Task: structure prediction
Amino acid sequence: MPAFRFVHAADLHLDAAFAGVSRDLSPRLADRLHRATFTAWERLVDLCLAERPDALLIAGDVHNHEDGSLRAQVALRNGCARLTDAGVRVFIAHGNHDPLTSRVHSLHWPDRVTVFGPQVESHALTRDGRVVAVVHGISHETDREGRNLAKRFARAATVQGMVHGMVQDMDVPPGAPQIGVLHCNVGATPGTRDAGRYAPCTLDDLTATGLDYWALGHIHLPQVLRTRPHVVYPGSTQGLHINEDGPRGCHLVTVHEDGEVELEFRPLAPVRWQVVEVAIGANGNGGADGSNGGNDPDDAGTPNGAASLEALHGRILEAMERAAAGDAAGSASGTPGAPGTPAFSVEATLFRVILHGRGPLDRHLRRPGAVEGLLEMLREAGASLDPLARVKDIELRTRPDVDMDALRRRDDLLGEVLRVAAAARGLPEPPAGDDAACPTGKPHAASPDAPPGLSPQADPAALRAPAAAVLAPLYDGPRGRRFLGPSDALSPEDLAALLDDAERICCDMLEAD
Result:
């Protein structure tokens, strides 16, 4: 069989708003965010026109809500018209955000655009009167599709196709690739909180159908669940919140004559989310080595960290510029393709800054208004960068410049509090009175491999029991449950972070300057 090429995309969410972004944006950045999902769609169309695949497969959630904006509907229809005019077939499966019961299903589509219905349909793609591939698909009938739709698929021996303008049954050659298009949740797939809620299925359900490639949608994290057969989520075409960081786009798929499948990820998103981590210690080491860490005058005389928030501001900006430069280089190079294949640039980057490590700046950062002031300075600086940069928020994971192991061994109230915290983590309690507090910034000899100044790793099972009793009155009351959610929904990471914060507050309140 000759090689068969298609583009696999999903979760366009046209006209969706970005989550967690404040409204005080510059007009330039606001415009780029407003256009981002449409720009990603336009880039997807341009990619198809440049690569000229046999088909574009879209696996659900083209729109962000059931009735889709008029702007989104027109953009989708016009893009499809450009593709079909160029000879590219388009196949669309509806998902939970745009099910068949929605108004978007009533759009008038150009010829050679196939929108799957509530039952599995099979369509042949032909060349010179021969079937070169079969595309199977099904759409969500409602926004609460709970059926296992994967079990309705099966490999076809014959399929209807168009020959000389007439629809007729055609034999499918054994080597012709057969592809399933489905918006679904496969098991407990990484990147989802609603496992089992929307068209749930298992890998075994998918492989039992005998299809060669599963073009899936619904999970926004790009991932290949297995090969032979390929089970692929391309991810969303544009990340919409901080948990959708990194490149977003689609897959260009080639099924070679020998049946081998080649995947090429192509970035499309004009706006990229990034997480940058910056240590407050000298030389970016969190103060772990107790040395000056270099010749930076801002760190002079501060063996365990930067001297000022201004110095930290510069360090964060450098990290942001490095991340943005990496985005630009990655988008410019892309994945090698045919001559003339477009390379799409990143127009703006939205950052979360995580500050970690141990040093004197921890105390300054904890003062009221300090983080807010730093955030404002970073936003002002980011507005002049190219591409545009905006810090969404700053997450503080820093620790005071003290030896926590030594503090746990003190025979006083602070030592007792920290030993209780260690016990809550399921760790052996260190005996009291062995060492005096020694804020030298050096790790205790009993734990040479532990990051200095950081709390020991919590045992999730041990932490869950005491946390339930302490947090239940706050989280499980009427007002707490409304704003915080139930206490049993807290992850082990959430519990560990709460305990870390409690330790820090106790250190601040019980340790004299």
